[in-house]
Design goal:
Helices cover 43% and strands 16% of the residues. It is α/β, with parallel strands linked by helices. The strands form 5 sheets. A 6-stranded parallel sheet has the order 6-3-2-12-1-11, sandwiched between helices.
Length: 326
């Protein structure tokens, strides 16, 4: 039953996100620079040029989804020249049961210099849809931050960040709200500074052929997101302060009790037909209110639970109103 309830909650949330107005936001905090998997991989000189070009365009932060393959001391020396670079690390093995992570190799110079890093892992999916991003993962006796959390903390150490192990990624504005450019365009100096200036630039590889994408609430009928794109949306959610908040257990219970008591009081004065109209009005109130709170307040109220409770109360009214048969 709990699984079906979570499935219903997720399905309704996806439908609400899908009907929100999707507009390009000029206030996005993240720009994605993508390297094609179909082209020869860049050498160390290309990576250095890419880094220096992005810095010259006025990026607030430069984030690599992973330490570029094939780079050596020269690239690392350029990384150490700046204090606004964060690197991603990918666990080589993740065993959820015993909460043990094996991390990739890490150059000792980066470790000694304290270059910030965050972990990059695929998001958890519920019935095939990924809605949340992780904030931290266990490593031994400690917890390591995800890439999005590490970047958000480095951007502003005083920024309030989610305390839970996961947070809902904001997909309200659709999948086109983040600018995405190719690395070739950056290397050709074909970008205007306004695209990059003051923003966090996330650099990473496009997925190779055959790697499945990530389905999210806003990819219904569209191509799924790559892991790089998902990381971009998770990061933009934190930097823009637009995390989707949900109601806690006590608030949920209070709302259900208040709704049930008020509805029962009204139902006792209504016949079946009038009760049906009242039920439709209440469902419309829940849905319109939920849409408005999600769109304007970035709050997801318990729309599914309230709707389900309302329908069950109405069905109880029908059952009670049926004449007793001998």
């Amino acid at each position: 039953y709990l699984g079906l309830l979570r499935h219903g909650q997720g399905w309704m949330y996806d439908r609400f996100v899908d009907i929100l107005p999707h507009v390009f936001s000029e206030s996005s905090q993240v720009v994605i620079v993508e390297l094609s998997a179909h082209e020869p991989p860049p050498d160390e000189a290309d990576w250095i040029l890419l880094l220096e070009t992005i810095q010259s365009l006025g990026a607030r932060q430069v984030v690599f989804s992973g330490l570029p393959a094939g780079v050596g001391p020269a690239f690392i020396a350029h990384v150490l020249d700046y204090d606004n670079i964060i690197l991603g690390r990918t666990p080589l093995r993740q065993e959820i049961d015993d909460q043990y992570l094996t991390l990739d190799n890490w150059p000792s110079r980066l470790d000694a210099a304290g270059v910030p890093f965050g972990l990059v892992v695929p998001p958890r999916a519920e019935f095939g849809i990924s809605r949340s991003a992780q904030t931290r993962l266990p490593h031994g006796m400690a917890w390591l931050p995800s890439l999005a959390m590490a970047v958000a903390h480095a951007n502003d150490p005083d920024r309030p960040l989610p305390r839970e192990q996961e947070f809902l990624v904001n997909f309200n504005d659709g999948r086109d709200r983040l600018p995405k450019v190719s690395a070739g365009r950056v290397l050709a100096s074909a970008l205007i500074p306004e695209i990059v200036a003051g923003r966090t630039v996330l650099v990473g590889m496009a997925p190779a052929a055959g790697i499945p994408g990530i389905h999210t609430p806003d990819t219904d009928g569209q191509e799924p997101l790559s892991l790089l794109e998902f990381q971009g949306y998770a990061l933009d959610t934190l930097l823009a302060g637009k995390t989707i908040h949900t109601t806690g257990p006590l608030t949920l219970l209070s709302l259900l009790l208040i709704s049930a008591m008020a509805s029962l009081f009204i139902y006792q004065w209504l016949d079946v037909r009038s009760g049906g109209w009242f039920t439709l009005v209440m469902l419309a109130i829940y849905w319109v209110s939920g849409w408005g709170q999600l769109h304007y307040l970035h709050l997801w109220p318990p729309v599914f639970e309230l709707s389900l409770g309302q329908v069950l109360l109405y069905l109880s009214l029908i059952h009670i109103s049926e004449p007793t048969r001998p």
